[in-house]
Amino acid sequence: MEAKKIRSTFIEFFQSKGHHFVPSAPIVVKNDPTLMFTNAGMNQFKDAFLGNEIAKYPRVANSQKCLRVSGKHNDLEEVGVDTYHHTMFEMLGNWSFGNYFKKEAIDWAWELLTEVYKLPKDRLYVSVFEGDPSENLEMDQEAYDFWKNIVPEDRIIMGSKKDNFWEMGDTGPCGPCSEIHIDLRLENEIAQTPGRELVNQDHPQVIEIWNLVFMQFNRLADGSLKELPAKHVDTGMGFERLVRAIQGKSSNYDTDIFTPFISYLEKKSGKNYGENEQTDIAFRVVVDHIRAISFTIADGQLPSNNKAGYVIRRILRRAVRYGYTFLGFQSPFLYELCPLMAEHFGDIFPEVRQQQDFIAKVIQEEESSFLRTLDNGLKMLASIKTELSEKGEKVISGKTAFELYDTYGFPLDLTSLIARESGFSLDEKGFEVEMEKQKNRSRAASESETGDWVMLEEEVGVDFVGYDFLESQSQIVKYRTVKEKKGEKYQLVLDKTPFYAESGGQVGDTGWLVSDEEKIRVVDTKKENDLIVHFVEKLPINPRIPFTARVDAAERQLIMNNHSATHLLHAALREVLGEHVQQRGSLVNERLLRFDFSHFSKMTDAEIQWVEEIVNRKIRENIALGEKRNVPIEEAKKMGAMALFGEKYGDFVRVITFDPSFSVELCGGTHVPHTGQIGFFKIISEGSVASGVRRIEAITSVAAEKYLRDQESLLKEVQDLLKNPKDIRKAIESLLTERNELKKDLEALHLEKAAQVKKGLLSQFVDQGDARILVAQVELPNADALKKLAYELKNEVENAFVVLAAAVDGKPQIAVILDESLIDSKGWNAGTIVRDLAKEIQGGGGGQAFFATAGGKNLQGLPNVVQKAKEQFL
Ligand code: ATP
Ligand code: MG
Known about the structure:
Layout: H1 3-16, E1 20-21, H2 46-50, E2 59-67, E3 69-70, E4 73-74, E5 88-97, H3 102-116, E6 124-129, H4 141-150, E7 156-159, H5 161-164, E8 165-167, E9 172-183, H6 187-192, E10 206-219, E11 225-238, H7 239-247, H8 259-269, H9 277-298, H10 307-326, H11 338-345, H12 350-354, H13 356-390, E12 395-396, H14 398-408, H15 412-421, E13 425-426, H16 428-446, E14 448-450, E15 454-455, E16 463-464, E17 471-474, E18 476-484, E19 487-494, E20 496-497, E21 511-514, E22 519-528, E23 531-536, E24 547-551, H17 553-577, E25 583-588, E26 593-598, H18 605-620, E27 625-632, H19 633-638, E28 652-658, E29 663-666, E30 681-690, E31 693-700, H20 701-721, H21 728-762, E32 766-768, E33 771-780, H22 783-796, E34 800-808, E35 811-818, H23 820-825, H24 830-838, E36 844-847, E37 851-855, H25 862-873
Parallel strand pairs: 1-2, 6-7, 12-13, 16-20, 33-34
Antiparallel strand pairs: 2-5, 3-4, 5-11, 6-9, 8-9, 9-10, 10-11, 14-18, 15-18, 17-24, 18-19, 19-23, 21-22, 21-24, 22-23, 25-26, 26-31, 27-28, 28-29, 30-31, 32-33, 34-35, 35-37, 36-37
The structure holds adenosine-5'-triphosphate (ATP) and magnesium ion.
């Protein structure tokens, strides 16, 4: 069965059992401070599990893009080395939200694997949680009994908390699980060792394929477990592993998910997969990583220097490095795999097809720049080796290895490999010490501890009223303490709030919570999944009384101006530059708006001006805001709204229009009622952020007004400096003309002076054997003049040897020039001589054997230079 068919069969099977299919959530996580990337199918349903939100469908099935390269689940170092862990993989899942529980989950899993996919029953093992006294958890007897009905008891294995108790992170929903493992070894191997002994022993052919999690608890920050209000089922089956089992392969990479990519690389590299362990690892690393990189870029995460972007950059570099070292790719190659990505994954994940060119461009750019770094690092490593050899040493220090890692992105194994190739060894312990030091430094910088929520009211979901009101009567539902280096801060959730929580690029509102007794400042508002969390610096004296929640209206007004202007800008850019312009990122705050968009060349001044004109015209047209809430997503798309990649949209969306024929966007932000309120729009910069992505920064209303006023006063100051001429431009032009003429005159004067100086010097040469020697102190306008003078003297006098101690524009310089014949006959070297003389002016220099110069600090030393040279040569 082909991979595609295996995937669709899974979905259809669960649809037939009353499940609703939902698309994969983006791989890059937003609005969840505990997670950077989706690492399991359940992430997108976290709120439903926690009871923050009521699930739309009680039964769901999906295929979720997952990435396990950071945090609690990090498989990066295994990937490529083994044949069944990937960085990015698809997790097939079926879900019950307070609906069915263990029995159905177990029965259906077995039915699908053995009756639909026809996997042999005698190769399958299942595991059950054995309990854990330290947590007061009992064995999962329920699951055991259900399994017993369908599987012989000697195929049921009891598992410890490590393997059979699933937790998403340090806190959050969790529960016992039952895993299904498959033994894919050859018959003769099975005859020797029963598969049962190899389950969970990291055997590459006896692997876990499916995990059925029975979500029963919530793990709190203090480590304790609390029963969840309703029980859920969360299952995750690694698609790539399933395909391998069904296709009867001994490695995930031998399935049709990966073989087209491996074939391409074989052709390109001229090497064959399956011939050598080192190159095989490289093949696997590359074909695995290209998926992770493409999917994350498609979801809007560009490689960068920090956080999620840095994780992506590291994955990409790992692929480039393996390709470079083991497959012989010295120039960008990864990006060439993008068309294959589009072809093989475009049906189920359309984002990689739709953005194919863009993804390729970003990857190519990253590859080129890393290859340059790699090259520099290799050069640096070479010079370190030479240095060590000269000292007779053979060990590269941990510090050096760490520096290579830190600044050049050289992983330890690469440095160690290169070192070994030329007979060096590497102090790996020293490297670990440096690494640990750095970790401690960054840990100390970012440490904070978030406590559990303290509940004050029954939780019924948050009512956001901020589209219509800037004030509401609210009650604190729950709060928690965040301990930071600088002290304690607090986070509050209100039953009802006008505060907009940071999202979609728009910053969170600030404002106050006001009661008769006090006024508490809200410094920021952020989303945590679907909760709106208010950040305050102190807790109310009595948190149980009602408060007036009041948004800082003046600030919000400025934010709305900038947000609505962003929509106008987006539409104008598409009009001026073309339909390929797509939003790639945005920031809207009270000071400015920043808009990143796909476009491949720098905007011209005329284009920028044109965009400004359109936006300002739309502002003057005073277009009324069109706001529609709860529009079915399909209808919104018909209206012309564009969904952004990497955004998670529900089935119902909010649509914002400013003239439906001009600007239609899916947007949760806050906007001006009429565009006239924006006042005025001005672009202040346009530049590049990444390959194929441009960034515009612009300002509106008061900020734009101030900007123009500042420009005006600058002009006024210039005018004053020029003594208020009638025509400023003419005044500056004539100033420049005058300046050029003066410059010419001055140059002529310099030449004349130099000629005179030279004439004087020519008469001062002294014959000394077969050399004609001149040592003199001179004054010259610039270094060029000194060089020119030295060369002329040498050319005009036969067998010349000249030492000039010069005051050049107030600084001491020395030039030594000599006829080439003297280098051999006298053994003189201008470089050596100048360095010695330079000591007198506290300086240094060098050059060639016939001509060298030096600069210094001590002008008073020039006579000493003359004296020293005369003593030595005359
Ligand atoms: P393993 O012990 O093999 O690393 P796991 O216990 O980490 O697996 P789960 O967190 O239970 O796995 O994830 C559910 C399923 O997802 C697994 O049964 C497996 O099929 C698949 N899976 C997990 N990690 C990976 C990975 N890195 N690459 C591919 N598939 C994976
Ligand atoms: Mg794992």
